Amino acid sequence: KDYSKKVKKKKKKKKEKSKDKKRRRDKRLGDKEREEKGWHQREQFLLGAEADKPWSQSSSSVGQSSISGVSRTTGSRATGFSGDSSSETDMTVDTVDSTMTTQSQPSLVDTFRNVLAEGLTMHLHSSTQSKEVFLWLQGGPLPEDRGRRRSQSRAASPHLLCWRPTGSVSRRAYQLDLSEVLFVEVGKQTPVLRTGSGAGVDEDHCLSLITPNMSVDFEASSKVEREAMAQGFALLINDIKTGDYLV
């Protein structure tokens, strides 16, 4: 009788192990499929942003003449940050100038939403280390909800930017409410990017999301991608703050 119980217990463990292995395999395949789809969306966004080139008007200020209130050159930094006034730029999210065509702006914002809904990988910097993270906008399908019907997925806030280290399955995702972002900075304007893990990174690849309490510092793969991501974040946050965001 005891032997029979041991056999059943062993079979049960083996079955659970097999199911767990299958779950992990399906997740890896789902990640790969999602990444391929995400790269396609990302490529479309970068092409669209590069065609508009809102940052090409000025070498010292990203899109300064194209988008009033989204970016400006300034000598003052956000509370807790300091720097020189000659070349510093930040991207505020107050208003979007009408000089950007009504067709191109919604197109960029919509494509950027799709990029974030699918998710993408970027490097995240902190004071001590840099790591590759999977970044997505909560309000689209969460990574653990892939393959489920929309009605089966958990309810999510459309304002949360989420990330977790790539390859991490069980680790809880970090979250940032985009409505709390004061502005987007390009270049090395924060202590993390100046003296932390981002000290050796090309300045043209850096951008930061600034909140009243902290900065979230990213490294893009190229200057074009950095400018497109900064522009996308600025427009998206502007939509959220003005109540134009739609899931």
Automatic annotation (TrEMBL):
Name the UniProt record assigns to this protein: Uncharacterized protein
Basic residues: compositionally biased ranges: 1-27
Region (Disordered): 1-91
Low complexity composition-biased segments: 56-71
Residue ranges, compositional bias (Polar residues): 72-83
Sequence ranges of Basic and acidic residues compositional bias: 28-43
